[in-house]
Amino acid sequence: MASHVIERWNPEDPAFWSQQGEAIARRNLWLSIPALTLAFAVWMVWSVVVVNLPAVGFKFNTNQLFWLAALPALCGATLRIFYSFAVPIFGGRRWTAISTASLLLPALGIGFAVQNPQTPYEVFVVLALLCGLGGGNFASSMSNISFFYPKSRKGYALGMNAGLGNLGVSLVQFVVPLVITTGVFGVLGGEPVMVDRSGQQVPMWLQNAGFIWVPFIMASALAAWFGMNDLKDAKASFADQAVIFKRKHNWLMCWLYIGTFGSFIGYSAGFPLLIKSQFPEINALSYAWLGPLVGALIRPVGGWLSDKLGGARVTFWTFIVMGLGVAAVLQFLPAEGRAGNFNAFLIAFLVLFAASGVGNGSTFRMIPIIFLTERLRAAGSGAAAQEQAQRDANKEAAAVLGFSSAVGAYGGFFIPKGYGTSIALTGGPKAALYVFIAFYVTCVAITWWYYSRKNAPMPC
Predict the structure, then answer these.
(1) Does 459 map to a domain?
(2) Which helix (H) or strand (E) holds 203?
(3) What H or E segment, with its residue span, contains residue 230?
(4) pLDDT tier at 356 (50, 70, 90 boundaries)?
(5) Beta bridge partners of 197
(6) How many angstroms separate the CA atoms of 249 and 370, rounded?
(7) Which residues pair with 193 in a beta bridge?
(8) Cα 33–36–40 angle (5° rounding)?
């Protein structure tokens, strides 16, 4: 497979970029996007499956269901720590293909497990954790694509990869409710279970929530293996990349990414169950997919805006909007003596999803600029020193993109679990939402002080 390895890669050279670099980068990006979309779909499939488990005969309580919704995010976030460093060690093509193929494990496992109501809860816990494989893929995918594009196009490229990849969240919440109502795979897909829907008994093939992704996973893994490239210039050991743990801005950007991506994935994972618990008369799955769709589609806009206006400025205003969005959600929840307003609640959440999507794009635009600036400041004035600083900055920025995505993904665990804990202790989710507002205030302060104010130490 030596032909898949590119020996020299310098996207900052205009001649190289126009003659051959742009076409290669574009091909790798457009093969990366469907692989990442499938990864997000498998990662978030539990957010839909858990809502339907009671209907097909599983006797799990509300807290157990919230745990199943939260566990994929916990596992995915943890795996991202390791996946962050995988591309420079194994190669982007090789790792994309292997990590995409690994999604077959949870997809097939879910398909078989949900067909038997006697399947133990522990099996579902294991399958929920295996869905975390999809979450891990994001870190390596973003790290890989960051190597292919010049500084001036990173916001666009990372925004497209992540934004269209994030569509997997909305896709799963839209597609699964459709495919579980019909025998998509005929006799090969197993028998349906009869469930009650508005007083009528209708068939449900819940196993299709897993099986539907299998052929697409196989096709995407093969496309990545035969169509993508490994960059020799991107090779680095774990020790080379571990220098990021000494960088202050690595930890600051991790905190900010919890606020943007952590919010997006956490709200996505918890939205169906939150709607069901607060507005039981509403069919949660008819609306839950809208939020992730808005957040995913607007992420490339966040990257594009940041290329034009600066990532720090966009991030600063994003967190202000997110704090106001949560405050609005609080006003429209059901409370003692007052019915909630679902339509206003939904609109407030769509604003939150949109802001988180913009922030996802803007924070990831900030990271390459921060580390390039930092390395160039520390380098000597000679051409060789500047070129080496640029290579070091690319490797550090790629590692930080992956690692910050790992830390940020823990929001996918803490938000739905925060809802569950708040409901168990106080009877409602308001306590959790007040904590989210306080967190956004810290994000506004960090962004302003370090990155967006006049004379900030690291303007970006």
Answers:
(1) no
(2) strand 200-204
(3) strand 230-231
(4) very high
(5) 200
(6) 8
(7) 204
(8) 135
Q: How far apart are CA 249 and CA 253, in angstroms?
A: 6
140 inside domain: yes
CA atoms within a 13 Å half-sphere pointing along the CA-CB vector of 385: 8
pTM: 0.77
Q: What is the pLDDT of residues 266-303, one digit of tens each?
A: 898 788 888 988 998 888 878 888 998 898 889 888 88
In a domain, 394, yes or no: yes
Domain span at residue 199 reads 2-452
CATH of the domain at 90: 1.20.1250.20
CA angle in degrees (0–180, nearest 5) for 25-26-30: 120
- The pLDDT tens digits of the residues spanning 415-430 come to 988 888 898 889 889 9
Q: C-alpha dihedral over 68, 73, 79, 85, to 10 degrees?
A: 170
C-alpha to C-alpha distance for 399 and 243, rounded to whole angstroms: 9
> For the chain, what is the domain count?
1
Is residue 457 one of the residues assigned to a domain?
Answer: no
Q: Is 401 exposed, middle or buried (0-12, 13-18, 19+ CB in 10 A)?
A: buried
Q: Is the dihedral of CA 97, 100, 102, 105 positive or negative?
A: negative
User: Mind spelling out the 3-state secondary structure of 332-360?
Assistant: HCCECCECCCHHHHHHHHHHHHHHHHHHH
Q: In which band, very low, low, confident or very high, does the pLDDT at 203 lie, cut at 50, 70 and 90?
A: confident
User: DSSP string spanning 281-341?
Assistant: TS-GGGTTTHHHHHHHHHHHHHHHHHHHH-HHHHHHHHHHHHHHHHHHHHHHS-BTTB---
